[in-house]
């Protein structure tokens, strides 16, 4: 049985950026199929009593995260620029990703949008930026953005977020294998893929 | 110039356990000298408004941390048993470590105490357990425990904790190189040691 993994990512999440850029190659080498699962961290943080990113709530932790991300992206040869404000409003981005089929299009749009957000520091709630990411992914922008506003897509994104919370996800990126093992963070990507390859 | 690194650790910190067990070998291979710097996270967490470990404040994060630590220690061949309560009161342990010379004795005591705490699940505020760790490290227990109660040791530990906070440390384990680069977490041990080896 070929391995499969659920990749839960949030467009406002800093460490989801390197994970999204890496997971395709790491999973392919191991023969593992990736299911791209965009979700929202906001409702999960809110249920912990947080009103913003923990990186803003604890400034020293935030400063170290930005420096760490700088070191990580440099090591990977990825461009890096901090978006302002942080965190970005990721609702429309997550709805667009949800609306796209998980047949390569969703992944391509997601990678393109992360590159604009954390590689160029652009605002991902800006329709022009969302349109650029769609075009980079080879997807006609206007119909995708229109579809993302539909009731069905809103409900689907809410369902994914509720599923994430029910599966004990508390941050992003997170990886869940078919046998229910949860791994949190870009640092655990390799370990999660190995687990998925081993345990189906 | 040979590399040097400051290893800031907290006896109540779960991820300080694998870091303390690994750092000697990783640093030796790179020719880096380790300065063992026990400190207290309590005052730092308190300044963020927290009254206990963030792993207790966010239960899903806590559950994942314990599972992650289980996977990490299994991978390293280290015994693992969750101490109760968590976090342990680490004040006396940190004072004893502070009182010991950083010439191998402090490291030996620290490793022995981590093994009892997270390998056997024992209480590190128990004088009997502290005595066992000292004896394992080849240090006469009674004089070390007596010295740890002295005013000078209390002030020295407070100074290390204040230094950690001034240097932007927000969690444990943390590593600071001579040129001021801060790395957080057991996951960053190798990267921190490489940095220290490269930058003196």
Automatic annotation (TrEMBL), chains A, B:
It catalyses: 2-hydroxychromene-2-carboxylate = (3E)-4-(2-hydroxyphenyl)-2-oxobut-3-enoate. One of its GO terms (biological process) is glutathione metabolic process. Its EC number is 5.99.1.4. The active site is at 13 (nucleophile). Residues 4-191 form the DSBA-like thioredoxin domain. It is an enzyme of class 5 (isomerase). Keywords: Isomerase. Pfam families: DSBA. InterPro entries: DSBA-like_thioredoxin_dom, GST_Kappa/NadH, HCCAis_GSTk, NahD-like, Thioredoxin-like_sf. GO terms for molecular function: 2-hydroxychromene-2-carboxylate isomerase activity; glutathione peroxidase activity; glutathione transferase activity. Belongs to the GST superfamily. NadH family. This is 2-hydroxychromene-2-carboxylate isomerase. It comes from Phreatobacter oligotrophus.
